[in-house]
What we know:
- Residues 150-177 are annotated as: Disordered.
- By secondary structure, the chain is mostly helical.
- The protein folds into two domains: 9-42 and 290-343, no CATH class; 43-99 and 113-130 and 184-289 and 344-373, no CATH class.
- The protein is 63% helix and 0% strand.
- The protein has 13 helices and no strands.
- It has helices at 9-35, 46-95, 103-110, 118-124, 159-168, 189-209, 215-218, 224-230, 236-252, 258-287, 292-317, 321-342, 355-369.
- Helix 1 runs antiparallel to helix 12 (321-342), helix 2 (46-95) packs antiparallel against helix 6 (189-209) and helix 4 packs antiparallel against helix 8 (224-230).
- The longest helix is centred in the N-terminal third of the chain and has 50 residues, at 46-95.
- The radius of gyration is 28 Å and the shape is elongated.
Amino acid sequence: MIVGRRLSWHIILRYVGRGVAIHVLFALTVIVGYRVFDAEWLSVPAMPVSVLAAALGVLLAFRNGSAYDRWWEARSLWGGVVNWSRTFARQVLTLLPRPEREAADSLKELELAPPTSPLLRTAAERSKPLLTVSGTRASDGAVRDQFGQARVRPEQGSPREKLATMHTAPQEEGEARGVTGGMVTDITEEARELVYAQIGFVNAMRCHLRRQDPLPEIVPFFRPAVIEALREEQNVPSALLLWMGTRLRRIYGQVSNTQQVLFLHVTMDRTLSELTNVLGACERIKNTPLPRQYDILLLAMTRAYLVLLPLGVVTELGWLTPLVTAVIAFLFIGLDAVGRDIEAPFEDDVSDTPMTALCRTIEINLRQMLGETELPPPIQPKDGLLY
């Protein structure tokens, strides 16, 4: 997302430079033919050009308004992700009780069938202390630079190499992942794991919407068994919500008070349902672009108008025709390019929703709720761009 007060000329030229240059050269050809070679047939009446400009302006305004609505909806949805993540962590840390009995007895009494999915079995099994995984604060998730080019950190290697390194790194039992001090001592291991799972979910959602592999980004937040089970999932964020719900079911089974279990189930399920709705809404925006007819029609009309423009003004403007063409071409080509850009807010480009920065904000907030003091720094804008 562009947050700087000044827009880089590199970005401007990337948007409109080539198109403007082509139409300026065409206008220069028209004025040379008209004045030097007396080709008066190159002049056309100005009235049709003016009418076409008005119609084109209306269509561009309509398309850009629709594109901005999609961009703003995407940002609003990720604002909801931030809020519901904080809500989920607060509910986990303040509402979930300490276990009263063994999970095996509870499951039997509640007649809950054991999960058959490898992923859900990792959620239903007895919780172990979270393990220390190096690199919790290393990933920034922004794999493109300010011009949309791929940006890979050489030391990270491929996703498979990164996963293999993290899985084989020395680990110490009983030490919470990425935590170095300032812990809140009365937080249960189940609650801590669920809060980390929420951090992993938002990062998986970010990668899912950007068509990136989420596993290297969420390794620091889950046990190796969970990561291994997630390899078979097509929709990792949705699978994580199911995993979190199953993990919560295991905790409910350790509570003897039926009314308390019902209250916890209703409260926590509403939060997970809201996260599911947000994920589905983001997928709708990602997978349903504006009708291509708008793009084709506007592109054709914009090019036709800019071809007719120098022919319509060459008689009145003379040698100023290329200059006027450059200004008007910059305006119309720029408006068309901006509309195309903001209609797809999850492409990890300069105008997109800053999901990387929002994921880092969520991680900082939730880890502070866990009482951690050594936190990753917020993502800062670079060259006026925030990813």
